[in-house]
Amino acid sequence: MKKLTYIFAILILSILTISCSSDDDNTPVEINPVEGLIMIYEIEATDHTIQIYSKKPNLEVGYNEISIRVKDLASNQFVSNLSPSWMPMMHMETMEHAAPHSMLTNAEESTVYKGHIVFQMASNATEFWELTLNYNLNGVAKEEVVNIQVIEPIDGLKKTQVFTGSDNTRYVLAYVNPKNPAVAVNNMQAVLYKMETMMSFPVVENYKITVDPRMPGMGNHSSPNNEDLIYNALTKTYDGKLSLTMTGYWKINLKLLNENDEVLKGEDVTEANPESSLFFEIAF
Amino acid sequence: MKAFISVFPFKGRLMGNLLYAVFCGIFITPTFAQEMPADSLKLINLNEVIVISASKQLNHQKQRKPLSSLDEFLESSRSIKMVKRGAYAWEPTMNNMASERLVVTIDGMQIFGACTDKMDPITSYVDVSNLSEAQIGSGQQGAAYGNTIGGGINLKLDKNNFRSTGWTGSIESAFETNNAMRVFGGEVNYSDEKFYINTDAIYRKADNYKAGGNEEVAFSQFEKYNFSINSGFKLAEDKSVAATLILDEARDVGYPALPMDVSLARAVIASVSFKQDTLFRNFSNWESKLYYNTIKHTMDDTKRPNVPIHMDMPGWSETAGFYSQAEIKLTKNHFLFKMDGYYNKSYAEMTMYPANSDEPSMFMLTWPDVRTKNLGLYAQNYLHFKKASLKLSMRLAYHSNTVADEFGLNSLKIFYPEMEKTKTRFLKSISAQYHNMWNDFHLNGGLSYGERAPSVSEGYGFYLFNSFDNHDYIGAPNLNTESSVETNLSLTYDKSIFEVGISANYFQIFNYIIGEIDPSLSTMTIGANGVKIYKNLDYAQLLNTTLSGRYNITNAFKLTGQISFHRGVDNNGENLPLISPVSYNSAIDFYRNQYSASLSINGAAEQVNYNASYGETKTAAYATLSASFGKRFFLQDNDLFVKAGIENILDTNYTSYTDWNNIPRMGRNYYLTISYSIN
Q1: Least C-beta-crowded within 10 Å: which of A13, A170, B295, B512?
Q2: Are both A110 and A177 inside the same structural domain?
Q3: Residue A20 binned pLDDT confidence (cut-offs 50, 70, 90)
Q4: Distance from CA of A120 to the nearest CA of B (A)
């Protein structure tokens, strides 16, 4: 009996000590500002280097999130007052054109400038993309031109649509999110630009894109509770909801509507018409 | 109780009062019953016991088909009908209610099938070789085993229980011509006053069966074996421990009524129990059991031709539980108290392989790892009066379901964005059953109330395909608790050579759970007609009536018969699915000088009340005729028992309301059973 009492006492004591020793580690952790990104280009200039990062190892046709930072070799520091701008340019055999892109901002990390470019086509043997970067370094305006390689998406899925709407305007619609689709209600995001000229692609505001995900392999099975993509002025994207009831290949049938709810592109999915001419593809 | 009240101030007090009232009700001692209770009083109850014990030589004579499957035994009962999806693993229904509304236990153990499509009712995981009887309680009379609406079935395992029989054994075999079914079984037992061990094994294998007119029913084959050990040891004169292990495995089981077959259905069922004759002086027959069982079920469509898309659908169900019960026997009161609980984990998934092999496979969780916790308290009291008795019983249970898998939770949130991970309920049951006897008349009457939680499929199923109504089903996590008010009445006139009885029960079921079409949803299964979501109907009504009789023509000849009528409608007066039409059976049995014989007829009238929106068609009237002959031989000390029979003598091609997708039933079938027992 006495032995039992001892064992019991030891048990209680050990529980107390375990529960009292909590971890109080508040030492700040050094955060790598380009954590999880892949450096796809590094350009050596005379007194600085330019690094271009992406989440994927290649730039692909479609929506690409790109981060840029510049290291001043004199101070060995990354610069946070670059005020950069950029211009992607496709040099084709007979003509050249730009690509829709955002501004570069350093809102999240002062030394990392982020933005996105929607490439409409891939580079090939005779046609190539150039990215022109303009920025300020220590008060001096600089320009750097980088020859970049853009490939067709490795998964072979259509996530970008370049088309002429019923209003005779050319549009570029690109899939942004979800990057990792799940069997759930996903937050869906896309960007929509129109081609004003070969060089100018402004963001289209206040249109609407309807969403109808289907599984052609499952008799065009669809899912409930999808929400149309609506323009978000803050992010300049079109945001909605995408429900996916199982893993596999999904064709997301879309319709583009203007402010007056006139259909500019895409059709309803019916028994007779199994797919819309405007769509994205995902597989997971 | 204090903690309870502080959390639910109003509800708690209400429940507390209810508890108090119920317990007081149970404890009332009849003040007017002065005489001793009439022990000789024969209780004619709505409850029924089906004797199984295939191996017990004495019972062989009473049974028309001793080595038939458990399913056939259950079907022979007057209160159970079996839903058939093939030749194997029939689903019991009672009072026209199926699995979700019944509680089916094995020796008091809760077990839940692992198949999302009800291809493995738990009655398929035991065999007649290890059962002694099936105890059937209609409606809330089954609440001793768990929460139920329609009733309870407890399959009691066969044990020697310290009888001093020494070594015994038997071997048995059966053959049936229709589907070339081979049955081989055997058992070896040892039992004395201090120790017993029972072991048995049985193996069944059948090919496709043929319906009337020699029409082969493809994919109706099956193969299964069952092995069990029961053992007990006396620790002291009044204390004993016992353990049970059952292993049941079926392979290559065809389901002709379904688009898929089963490549494996395996159950391991284990328990240890402790028994003591008395407890705290007042209690007697104290019994406690700890149990665990695990089921794996694998559906398979690789042998089916023309499958639109191949799919794998494995399911797992694991249950751990306990119960502890004790009795108090007083002169006029007989109390039973029971505390029980279980924890179940149900998980099932589906992977489909697209025709285009470049596309990724399609995966979904059809049961999202649902964890069910149930903790219950059950009390009953038999009050004995001079010529009457009253049984009062109640059950209170805490029941909770939790979706443990994040993937599954997110899947369901597509339909129910606001759903919570966990849903908790309190389930109540209370019943009073009265019996009175005047001369040869017995009157039975009862009134009860019971509740049940939705099943895993009803609450959390994800695109479960029902081939009967050709719809995909989606569970509804926020379903209301289903409850039922039930009343029953029966009157029997019982003379030793003559008996006739009429009985009826009526269920008014509130929040009746059933699938309703949601036209806005898109089907998942290729070829399905639509998607149904489980909903609560305001109410549904079920009525079952039976007229039965027995006449002992001579000592050797006995004539029995029964005719029953059933009706089930929802709150709009629409017919409920799977409700029996008028059905009848009659038999004449003969037994004399170790010879036995029987001739029986089974039939049903046309199914007038059916519901096409649940995939039902009007099944035609039918009748089948069967006969059996048996003889027992004594070979020195041992017994040889031979029984042969013909089922469906006229080779009728027929289908009944319980036959899934109207698959035809077995045609003419000859069977032969031989048992040899060594005493």
Answers
A1: A13
A2: no
A3: very low
A4: 25
Number of CB pairs, chain A paired with chain B, less than 8 A apart: 81
User: Is the preceding omega at residue A178 within 30 degrees of 0, hence cis?
Assistant: yes
Structural domain of A221? 160-283
Write down how long chain B is. Answer: 679
Are A224 and B520 within 8 A, CB to CB?
yes
Taking CB atoms and an 8 Å limit, are B360 and A284 in contact across chains?
Answer: yes
In whole angstroms, what is the distance from residue A160 CA to residue A282 CA? 12
Nearest Cα residue in chain A from B360: A248
The label of the residue with tokens 């340019």 reads: A89
**Rounded to an integer, what distance in angstroms lies between the CA atom of residue A265 and that of residue A165?**
5
Average pLDDT for A46-54: 92
Domain ranges of chain B: 1-31, 32-464+478-678
**Residue A30 pLDDT greater than 80, yes or no:** no
A180 and A273 fall within a common domain: yes
In chain B, residues with a C-beta closer than 8 Å to the C-beta of A225 are 414-415, 417
Residue A21 confidence (pLDDT) above 80: no
Residue A62 inside a domain? The answer is: yes
Q: What would the pLDDT profile of B452-489 be if each residue is shown by its tens digit? A: 999 999 999 999 999 999 999 999 999 999 999 999 99
Preferred mutation among A157, A185, A246 to probe B, highest tally of B CBs within 10 A: A246
Chain A: residue nearest B410 by CA?
A184
Residue A11 is assigned to a structural domain of this protein: no
Mean pLDDT score of chain A: 89
Q: Would you say residue A26 lies in a domain?
A: no
Residues of A in contact with B470 (CB under 8 A): none
Q: Are residues A170 and A145 in the same domain?
A: no
Q: How far apart are CA B211 and CA B86, in angstroms?
A: 12
Q: Are residues A266 and A192 in the same domain?
A: yes
Cβ-defined contact of B363 to A245 (cutoff 8 Å): no
What's the pLDDT band for A26 if we cut at 50, 70, 90? Answer: low
The mean per-residue pLDDT over the stretch B608-633 comes to 90
CATH of the domain at A87: 2.60.40.1930
pLDDT score at B53 = 63
Q: Please identify, among A151, A186, A209, the residue that sits at the C-terminal boundary of a domain.
A: A151
Tell me whether 0.85 is exceeded by the ipTM.
no
Residue at a domain's end among A117, A151, A185 = A151
Residue A209 included in any domain: yes
A183/B362 CB distance under 8 A: no
What tokens appear for A132 in the block? 């022109």
Q: Searching chain B, which residue's CA lies closest to the CA of residue A222?
A: B522
CA distance A251 to chain B (A): 12
Question: Is residue B662 classed as helix, strand or coil in its secondary structure?
Answer: helix
The answer on A244 and A129 residing in a single domain is no
The total of structural domains in chain A comes to 2
The pLDDT tens digits for A236-247 are 999 999 999 999
Instruction: Please answer yes or no on whether B520 and A182 come within 8 Å at the CB atom.
Output: no
User: B310 to each of B300, B304, B366, how far by Cα in Å?
Assistant: 9, 9, 16
Cα gap B624→B585, rounded to integer Å: 9
Integer Cα distance of A185 and B36 in angstroms: 69
Mutate to test the interface with B, among A154, A157, A183, A241 (most CBs of B within 10 A): A183
CATH of domain B32-464+478-678: 2.40.170.20
